[in-house]
Each structure stands twice: as C-alpha cells, then as structure tokens.
Write a structure and sequence with these properties.
With 155 residues, this protein is α/β, with parallel strands linked by helices. The protein contains 3 helices and 8 strands. 25% of the residues lie in helices and 24% in strands.
Length: 155
C-alpha cells in the first residue's frame, strides 16, 4: 500500500500520482481539454469500444488519458515506468479498423465543433531509461517540473 502521509504530516504522493499531476499541468498549459485523466487503478468513466484487429471481436477499454487540442485528440496510458502491456493495448487500438472513428465520435459528443480528425497515441511514464519505440510516442515526466518527449523512432 502506498503511504500518503509521512510521520511529519507532509503529504507524500505515489510516483504515478505525481506523473498524472505533472501531465495535467502540461496539458492545460498546452491548451488541451482533458476529458479523462486517471492514475492506474482509478475509476474511469469513459470507455472506448472497438474491433480487435487480430481476433475480429469487439473489445472495450478505459484509457487513462483522453484529451483534445486544436490539432489532435490524444489517447494515452499512464504508468510510473514504461509498460509493455500498455504499449500493446495502445497498438491494439491503433490497428483496429474502427477505433479512430469511434474515438472521434466519442470526443465530438463533448466538443461538437471539433475540427481535427487526427488521433495521437502516447505512453506516459517517468522512466528516463526507456528506449524510443517504433510504434508509440512517449511523454516522460522524470520529476515534477520536466517533460521529455520521445517520438516514435524511425527504425
């Protein structure tokens, strides 16, 4: 169990909550509207249903991050460290024949004047040692103040 209060009475947050708080500040200052942003294990209210490319079955997931800016919609997963499982989850969404359409439709319910049809998928974490990935963009928050972007590698 994560300790939230120290003996001195100072509030101590888990690394993931710190990452979520830093991400929230980053998105707000970058003029994104946050639809959903939760730490792992938190209660998500917005789900995404899509057809899985490999199994051709309907699948539902609850992204940790859904936000919209002028140029793109962002779907993301947030963890303290780079997560292969979350990377694979995002790849299943990317490869789905209908996920992007469903994402845009879902966001347009809240933002009917949305002009963009661009969807970005990002893995958000605090792991400075992660390598660039050929399929997924990464945003890394190593502390409360810095953000490092690792775009998809070209390999």
């Amino acid at each position: 169990m994560t300790e939230l209060f120290s003996m001195s009475g100072n509030i101590r947050f888990s690394k993931e909550i710190k990452i979520v708080n830093s991400l929230r500040k980053y998105l707000i200052t970058s003029n994104y509207h946050i639809i959903q942003l939760v730490a792992s294990g938190g209660q998500c209210s917005v789900s995404l249903t899509f057809t899985d490319f490999e199994s051709e079955r309907r699948s539902t997931c609850y992204p940790d991050l859904i936000c919209v800016g002028e140029e793109s919609i962002i779907i993301g997963e947030v963890k303290p460290r780079f997560s292969i499982g979350d990377r694979d989850k995002l790849l299943r969404i990317i490869r789905s024949p209908d996920a992007q359409y469903n994402i845009i439709r879902l966001v347009k319910l809240r933002f009917p004047n949305l002009k963009t049809n661009s969807v970005r998928y990002i893995l958000v974490h605090g792991d400075l040692n992660s390598q660039p990935d050929s399929d997924i963009d990464q945003l890394i928050f190593p502390n409360d103040y810095d953000v490092i972007s690792k775009p998809k590698s070209l390999s």
